[in-house]
Structures are given as structure tokens and as C-alpha cells.
Design goal:
mainly alpha
Length: about 70
């Protein structure tokens, strides 16, 4: 299944980052913080930096306000 259909307004790299965040939330079944998700899951499956996830969240927030 192509997950990009759920992130149409985002660029491919941002959509990929947001998908990884959703995946980490599902895998860990809790969200204490973005840092927690990164330390306990994301850093093990991607080479993206913690800052990339913070940036994607701030970008996503702006996009949803524009809708």
C-alpha cells in the first residue's frame, strides 16, 4: 500500500519522516515525546536526525493550519 496518498500535501521526504513517526507510535504504543520515539525506535531504523523529526512535525502543523 502506498502511504503517500495520506500525505498528499507534503514533499516525499517529509511524508517519509511523518510515516516513520506514525510507525514508531504504533510500534511503541505510547508517545512521551519525539525524543523518546527517536531514542527507543527511530534511531534504530533510520539515519535521519532527531532534528529532522522535529522539523517534519513543525512543517506538518503549518500545513494543517493552511487547510
Amino acid at each position: 500500500m502506498d502511504f503517500f496518498i495520506y500525505f498528499k500535501t507534503f514533499s516525499a521526504p517529509t511524508a517519509d519522516t511523518l510515516f516513520l513517526l506514525v510507525l514508531s507510535i504504533l510500534a511503541l504504543e505510547s508517545v512521551h515525546s519525539i525524543r523518546f520515539l527517536y531514542q527507543h525506535f527511530l534511531s534504530g531504523i533510520t539515519k535521519k536526525s532527531l532534528n529532522a523529526f522535529y522539523h517534519a512535525c513543525s512543517y506538518a502543523k503549518r500545513e494543517f493550519y493552511c487547510l
